[in-house]
Amino acid sequence: MEQRHATAPQQVPGMSTAELRRHYLVEDLFAPDEVRAVHSHHDRVVLVGAVPRTGPLPLPAFPELRADRFFDRREAGIVNVGGAGAVTVDGEEHRLAPTACLYVGRGAEKVSFASADADSPAAFYLFSAPAHASHPTVLVEPGGGTVRELGDPLTSNRRTLTQYVHEGGVRSCQVVMGVTALHPGSTWNTMPAHTHERRTEVYLYFGVPEDARVVHLLGEPDETRHLVVADRQVVISPPWSVHSGVGTASYSFVWAMAGENQSFDDMDPHPVTGLR
């Protein structure tokens, strides 16, 4: 498990491109037949990527968590960004089509990942946060959550936002999670950019064509920097940082948050005219 320590906004102006990427970009979370993990000290979130190709992969406890099992003190949302697959939780198999979401509550003992087809393996993205209570494991099929149609093609940000784990949907302690898909011809996400001092947000970009990239904005609104992001790469946004981006082609992303509350609209917008 890789450790990412918390950072302050005053550090950003002096960072090089390599330093920005080292602190905020996870480039290699997904690898065939591996379970990889990153622990961020921002709200203690854990990011896990699992790509079971030749056989099932168990979710380890990871020594850094100081727990007998991964879910002893944690909960998680899991989204499949690859081919069809399944997640088995304490002996019960949950089949996840691409972009389906599975919430796993505190107290689960054994979790494993499997693909339906080795030639098109599943790619499971797990976003976890500390949990104070137990909630049932729930599977949500693609598009089965709360769907919002946002944006306008005239401003290149027409998009479908699906909320899976949130205060009006699947119950959790603090995880909020969903998927946004840009419509063909649209490239901007989450505009105007915003911050929310009470929560850390993480973006996993997927469906990015091999020859395309997303330019992701980060930092304080009056002191922004950018990351150039490829397919299946992850950006960690501290509570003080904006998180918005534009692609050279349409794409999708999993957004996930953890922190003080679960109110989706608890955010502080920053008009594009005020960004620097």
Automatic annotation (TrEMBL):
Pfam families: KduI. The keyword Isomerase applies. Keywords: Isomerase, Metal-binding, Zinc. Binds 1 zinc ion per subunit. Pathway: Glycan metabolism; pectin degradation; 2-dehydro-3-deoxy-D-gluconate from pectin: step 4/5. It comes from the Bacteria. GO terms for biological process: D-galacturonate catabolic process; D-glucuronate catabolic process; pectin catabolic process. GO terms for molecular function: 4-deoxy-L-threo-5-hexosulose-uronate ketol-isomerase activity; zinc ion binding. Its EC number is 5.3.1.17. Its cofactor is Zn(2+). Belongs to the KduI family. This is 4-deoxy-L-threo-5-hexosulose-uronate ketol-isomerase. It comes from Saccharothrix syringae (Nocardiopsis syringae).
